[in-house]
Amino acid sequence: MTDLINPATEEVVASVQATDLAAVDAAIERAHIALAAWREVAPGDRARLLRKFADAVDADLENLARLEVANSGHTIGNARWEAGNVRDLLEYYAAAPERLLGKQIPVAGGIDVTFNEPLGVVGIIVPWNFPMPIAAWGFAPALAAGNTVVLKPAELTPLTAIRLGELALQAGIPADVFQVLPGKGSVVGQRFVTHPAVRKVVFTGSTEVGRQIMAGCAAQIKRVTLELGGKNANVVFADADIEKAAATAPYGVFDNAGQDCCARSRILVQRSVFDRFMELLEPAVQGVVVGDPADDTTEMGPLISASHRSTVAGYIEPSTRVAFRGNAPAGPGFWFPPTVVLPSSPTDRVVAEEVFGPVVTVVPFEDERDAVRIANDTDYGLSGSLWTNDLGRALRVSRALEAGNLSVNSHSSVRYWTPFGGFKQSGLGRELGPDGALAFTEVKNVFIATT
Ligand code: NAP
Ligand code: MG
Fold first, then answer.
1. Shortest-distance ligand to the CA of residue 125
2. Closest to 149 measured CA to CA, from 164, 159, 138, 163
3. Distance CA 206, CA 178 (A)
4. Which residues pair with 150 in a beta bridge?
5. Element (H, E) at 396
6. Which atom of ligand 1 is nearest to the CA of 152?
7. Residue 184 in contact with ligand 1 by CB distance below 6 A
8. In angstroms, rounded to a whole number, what is the distance separating the alpha carbons of residues 194 and 326?
9. Smaller CB count within 10 Å for the chain: N or C?
10. Do residues 22 and 35 touch, judged by C-beta distance below 8 A?
């Protein structure tokens, strides 16, 4: 049994039994057997079951949100959004079964058609930072495309995933079509990689583990989607609305206490407005409401664990120049205040590595070319923001940045109906959006002779 700790109080929330290897194998076998019937469910019926699953999530939304607050320390506002995101994903991909359109391609002597066939059993491995959305980004389109799913939540945050598994059954999704297997990455996750009946692994987590997953999948040419880390730039040009850029910058990085692969953790500011930006940023950072995540007005909660807090704290070395900090409660809980750092060199760990906590660096740049050079000077390429009122510049810089998800004069990057994923070492493949279900299919071409 693993004890789960409330990150805001350090109290035990629940204990969960880890799935052992024999039980993982048995679950994968059951998922494999369930496949034959699930892929034959008529498209309209599969759609209806997914909509019922969405309704069950909606009816349980407050419960799911409270579970996430207790297990993960997410603010209640965020947790409600996250549960709603699961519902919306199920609704959106419930429209996919009847729309997995193949092609009819002109040929001589017959007809040629393509089919989008399900892959088989899909293994989904989820990190602790967004337990509900990241699970659903995988399972909603995978189920819609006729696959069965085994899902491993992060060891630290399995409670909402376990509840979603119960809701699926209640909603009428047949047994063994969607199974949640809490447990260790090295046991459950690793078995998804090595078990031949699992035909695709969807992994979200660190680049380090993602690299191992990809290497492991190579042995069976197993399909893989990877959503990995980020060290995303927020580029502020002198011609932008500096007040708005400074007021919103903290929320672009400190949301979910910075434990977000899309966190804009490197702010780049054009030198001519650098001092003005810093003057405006200080009150904005101090205004971030950090505290009890169950309180409706809280904007930032604690970090996930004591060990993660010490990793984050390790980025603030004695020589690190801290410009200013926000607030954090004293007492129990894995708190860390919003922290703004002025790095001394581009190779400082704090500016080169993904901190995954509420720490942001601010550096000046000279001109557009310099901004693009600094923003792209990383192995990651997940997201980013740019602030400018020059339309031409917005488009030029958007095209020049090596990242999968950009926002201009905004920090939003994730919508379930638009594609999401990383360039470079931030990932492989895309999730969400109109093509999301196709990533869980194999194209089959069939020629039928008519003569
Ligand atoms: P992690 O250590 O890579 O773990 C992610 C998941 O993989 C967990 O469920 C973990 O299980 C499992 N795992 C660990 N070792 C494994 C192995 N050898 N084989 C199979 N599965 C294994 O990442 P994390 O620390 O939970 O999450 C933080 C990282 O995720 C950050 O780097 C962040 O940027 C990234 N992330 C990326 C995205 C994105 O969409 N691009 C989204 C969220 C997070 P355990 O629970 O047992 O460790
Ligand atoms: Mg880890």
1. 1
2. 138
3. 25
4. 123, 179
5. helix 391-400
6. 9
7. yes
8. 45
9. C
10. no
Domain positions in the chain: 2-228+425-449, 233-415
Percent of the chain with pLDDT over 90: 99
Joined together, the tokens standing for residue 345 give: 């060199």
Looking at residues 148-173, what average pLDDT do you find?
A: 98
Query: What pLDDT score does 413 carry?
Result: 75
Distance CA 37, CA 168 (A): 17
Q: For 75-86, what is each residue's pLDDT tens digit? A: 999 999 999 999
Contact 342, 361 (CB under 8 A): yes
Residue numbers annotated as active site = 227, 261
| Spatial distance between the Cα atoms of 307 and 297, rounded to a whole number of angstroms | 27
- Residue partners of 310: CB distance under 8 A and separation at least 6: none
Q: Which residues pair with 234 in a beta bridge?
A: 267, 385
427 lines ligand 1 (CB under 6 A): yes
CATH value of 2-228+425-449 in 1.10.3720.10, 1.10.10.10, 3.40.605.10, 3.40.50.300: 3.40.605.10
- The token pair at 289 is 């409401």
Ligand 2 centroid to residue 209 C-alpha, Å? 8
176 lines ligand 1 (CB under 6 A): no
pTM above 0.85, yes or no: yes
The separation between CA 259 and the C-alpha centre of its own chain, rounded to angstroms, equals: 10
Q: Which two tokens stand for residue 185?
A: 């990455």
Cα separation, 11 vs 403, in Å, equals: 39
Q: Are 2 and 155 within 8 A, CB to CB?
A: yes
Which of 234, 183, 178 has its CA nearest to residue 49? 178
pLDDT on residue 412: 85
Tell me the one-letter amino acid at 16: V
Locate 162 and state its tokens.
Answer: 């376990």
| Average pLDDT for 400-419 | 96
Please check the confidence at residue 393 and state whether its pLDDT lies above 80: yes
| CATH topology assigned to domain 233-415 | Aldehyde Dehydrogenase; Chain A, domain 2 (3.40.309)
With 90 as the cut, is the pLDDT of residue 171 above it?
Answer: yes
Cα(14)–Cα(53) distance, rounded to whole angstroms? 25
**3-state SS, residue 164:** helix
Task: Give 341's contacts (C-beta < 8 A, 6+ positions apart).
Answer: 316, 320, 321, 322, 323, 350, 351, 359, 360, 361, 362
